[in-house]
Amino acid sequence: MTKLLAFAGVALLWVVPTAAHHSFAAEFDENKPVTLKGKLTQLDWLNPHGWLHLDVVEPDGKVVNWAVEAGAPNALVRRGLRKTDFPIGSEVIVKGYRAKNDSPTASGTTVTFADGRNFFLGASDSQSQAGPAAPGR
Q1: In the chain, what are the domain boundaries?
Q2: CA-derived radius of gyration, the chain
Q3: For a disulfide at 121, which of 41, 95, 108, 115, Cβ 3.0-4.6 Å?
Q4: What is the mean pLDDT of residues 58-73?
Q5: What DSSP letter does each residue of 21-55 carry, written as one string?
Q6: d(CA 8, CA 10)
Q7: pTM metric for this prediction
Q8: Which CATH architecture is the domain 27-120 placed in?
Q9: Is residue 96 a contact partner of residue 34, using CB atoms and an 8 Å limit?
């Protein structure tokens, strides 16, 4: 009985992280590309996905804080990004895809810094998503 309980406990450890992870198609819409230009307000450098938060000024002057999902920190580091590359207040342009629920949330594909550096933000190098996001909001 003890071995069975131990096995069940280990099995639960494998299942919980998998259940917590979502697919792109479950949350984001490949038919809703978005280009966001704004100031970085927060960076969450954590697994399974990092998050960029930026203030975007809408055409009517209203400021909306967007949450943009990125790849895991170790994937971003392999692409040449470091946490220190994202100082709060930095101007960035992020391309990606809007959330299906139309909240100010997106899955990021690229980030471009004011100095012209451009990096892939996606969750995987193979990016099973729709490809590079076109401008459009």
Answers
A1: 27-120
A2: 17
A3: 108
A4: 96
A5: ---HHHHEEEEEEEEEEEEEEEEE--SS--EEEEE
A6: 6
A7: 0.74
A8: Beta Barrel (2.40)
A9: yes
